[in-house]
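Render this sequence as a predicted structure.
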Amino acid sequence: MPHEAPDPLPQLLQSFFCQRLQSQRAVSTHTLTSYRDTFRLLLKFLEQKTGRTPSQQRLRDWNSSHLIQFLDFLEKERGCQTRTRNIRLAAIRSFMRYVAQEQPDAIAQTQSVLAIPMKRFDRPLLGHLSRSELEAILAAIDLSTPGGRRDHLLLSLLYNTGARISEILALERQHVRQHPSALIEITGKGRKQRSLPLWKPLARELHRHLATLPAEPTSWVFNNRFGRRLSRSGAEKRLRLAVNRALPSCPSLRGRRISPHTVRHTTAMHLLQSKVDITVIALLLGHATPATTHQYVELDLQMKERSLKKLRPPTSAGRRFKPNDSLLAFLERF
């Protein structure tokens, strides 16, 4: 009796990571990590469904029915937000497109999976800080300790540059330029590099901080108390501590969720309110297109009020539509 041919799924998944993602697309470490986490969760989920270990699973197990159940599992049992659910689905779609090329006989299955839609979600207005709120947080940081001086520098850099927290925490000594003018060189999403100038007082503060660090060009600019690079969660914790200390002098901060990304939104809003061109703001923030930066216009109520003052309200009042048909009346309920 002939032996059954091994299922192609394990080899397909390995070649997808090694050939498609790393060799052909040269994706970033962050993308690889996100894809890895997606498939690790999916393999564990399907192991419970099918009773087969990850290395024994079959391609036909990855059908649209099982994958829809997996997406529901992420939201209902793991408590993932819709954005996270869509990110996981995007990784699965990418793999299924690869499978369709490598396994033409699985085209019907892959098309069924690719037909699973992304889920729409609410897009709340972005939170930002007023200038007085930001100054209160900076003033609450204890500058008498090395950790406090580091935190003050970190928050000031975030506000000066509008950079993402991941971009600032990835700074090495070699990315700082003091001459002819002070600036930092960062690498953002899509491996786009940009240079961001620094205010003179902040440049001096950064220079003093660098004097306390190892002289190696690859040494991290922001370290934790153990001498290792400061993590994202560590930076968020230090910011929460500063916000809590600022509450007595700035009660408007109470009950608000303030993260390092809030500081990035704050920079964008303050530039917009200062009438800086939106295309320039997009360049500073590292946005792929100014369309992404337009979301900050939604936050500026003063800009909206100035625009609306140029319009005149209508003088005649409109009449409410009243359906005279039962089917139209039914549709009016929605």
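Summary. The mean pLDDT is 89. The CA atoms of residues 79 and 284 lie 34 Å apart.
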